[in-house]
Design brief:
The strands form three sheets. The protein has a five-stranded mixed β-sheet with strand order 2-1-3-10-4, with helices on both faces. A five-stranded mixed β-sheet has the order 7-6-8-5-9, sandwiched between helices. Strands 11-12-13 form a three-stranded antiparallel β-sheet, with helices on both faces. The N and C termini lie far apart (56 Å). It has 312 residues and is an alpha/beta fold. The chain has nine helices and 13 strands. The protein has three domains: 9-104 and 203-223, D-Maltodextrin-Binding Protein, domain 2; 110-189, 3-Layer(aba) Sandwich (D-Maltodextrin-Binding Protein, domain 2); 235-311, Double Stranded RNA Binding Domain, CATH 3.30.160. The protein is globular and about 60 Å long.
C-alpha cells in the first residue's frame, strides 16, 4: 500500500512571473499526484531580476538574479523547496542546498515569432528582438545583415512590438511558450544546427536543503533520469569552460541511442564569429568526453582570437 502523506505540507518557492507560476503550479500538481495526501503551497518570492525590468539581462553583474532570493528563503527555512528554470541557476550552488530533481524536459529549441515570415526570408536590415548574446551570436552567423535589439517584458508586450511593426520578429524559448499554452504564436522553431539552446534550457530544477531528507525524497519522485543525465553534462561543460555568463556560449545534450549527443558553441555576439563542436558521446566516458570538448572549444576560441570565460 502506498504511503499516505495525509496532513503533510510542503511550501514551494517560485518567482512571480506568469511562466514561473505556470511551472510551479505544474510541479505542485505533480507532487500532489505522486504523494497522495500531500498539500503543496506555492509561495511567490520576488527576485532582483524580476524587480529590475529595465536592465538588459546580459548586463546584470550578478549571474543568478532570478534565483538568489529564492535560495536565501530556502536556506533560512521560509520555504521547503524551490522550483527554478534550470538555465537561471548558476554553476556555483550554495553548499547547504542541492538540486534534488530534474523533471522531464520540454522542447528545448528556440522559437521564432513574426507575422508569418521565416527567419531566413526576412528582408535585409530587419529588426529582431532578443537580448541574449547566445542567440545573437548564432543568429548573426546565419544572417549577418539583420539588426538585433534587446527586449524585456512579457510575451504580450513582445508580440505587440511585432504587431505595431517596431520589430520584424522575436526569438523566445519554445518551452516557455508551450508551458504558457501560447505555442500557436510560433512561426517556426530553429533546429539545433541553427541555434544551440542555453545550458539547461527547457528543464526545471527542484531544489531543497542538503540535510532535508524528507523533502529530498518527495522531490525525487519527479526526477527524470534522461533529463537529469543530459542537464548534468551541460552544467559540467559550463563549469569546465569557466562559467556561464561572461561570454556567449551554449551547450545541449539529448538522448541518442544508448547515450547522448552533445553540442556546444562559444563565440562573439558582435562579430558572429564562433566555434562549434558536436559529437555522440560513449555511455561509459560521457563526462570525460565533455571535459575534452570544453578544452577543445577553449583552444579553438583562443586560436581564432575569441574571448573565453577564462580570459577574465
Amino acid at each position: 500500500m502506498a504511503h499516505s502523506h495525509h496532513g503533510e505540507k510542503l511550501i514551494l518557492g517560485s518567482r512571480g512571473s506568469a511562466l514561473a507560476l505556470a511551472q510551479a503550479t505544474k510541479m505542485k500538481h505533480e507532487l500532489e499526484a505522486a504523494h497522495p495526501g500531500l498539500e503543496v503551497q506555492v509561495q511567490v518570492i520576488k527576485t532582483s531580476g524580476d524587480a529590475d525590468q529595465s536592465t538588459r539581462l546580459d548586463a546584470f553583474q550578478a549571474f543568478g538574479v532570478f534565483v538568489k532570493e529564492i535560495q536565501t528563503a530556502l536556506m533560512e527555512g521560509r520555504i521547503d523547496a524551490a522550483v527554478h528554470s534550470l538555465k537561471d541557476v548558476p554553476e556555483d550552488e550554495p553548499s547547504s542546498l542541492t538540486l534534488a530533481a530534474f523533471p522531464e524536459r520540454e522542447d528545448a529549441r528556440d522559437a521564432f515569432i513574426s507575422k508569418g515570415v521565416r527567419f531566413i526570408d526576412l528582408p535585409k536590415g530587419a529588426k529582431i528582438g532578443t537580448g541574449s548574446p547566445r542567440r545573437i551570436m548564432q543568429l548573426r552567423a546565419l544572417r549577418p545583415d539583420l539588426e538585433f535589439v534587446p527586449i524585456r517584458g512579457n510575451l504580450d508586450t513582445r508580440i505587440a512590438k511585432i504587431e505595431r511593426g517596431d520589430l520584424a520578429g522575436v526569438v523566445l524559448a519554445t518551452a516557455g511558450l508551450r508551458r504558457l499554452e501560447k505555442a500557436s504564436v510560433i512561426t517556426h522553431r530553429f533546429s539545433f544546427s541553427e541555434s544551440i539552446p542555453a545550458i539547461g534550457q527547457a528543464a526545471l530544477a527542484l531544489e531543497c536543503r542538503v540535510d532535508d531528507a524528507r523533502v529530498h525524497k518527495l522531490l525525487d519522485a519527479l526526477n527524470d533520469p534522461l533529463t537529469s543525465d543530459a542537464v548534468l553534462l551541460e552544467r559540467r561543460f559550463m563549469k569546465a569552460v569557466g562559467g556561464g555568463c561572461r561570454v556567449p556560449m551554449a551547450a545541449h545534450a539529448y538522448p541518442y541511442g544508448d547515450s547522448y549527443r552533445f553540442m556546444a558553441v562559444m563565440g562573439d555576439a558582435v562579430t558572429g564569429k564562433l566555434v562549434r563542436i558536436e559529437r555522440a558521446l560513449e555511455p561509459d566516458t560521457a563526462e570525460s568526453e565533455v571535459d575534452e570538448i570544453a578544452a577543445e572549444i577553449l583552444d579553438e576560441c583562443r586560436a581564432h582570437k575569441i574571448r573565453t570565460p577564462r580570459d577574465g
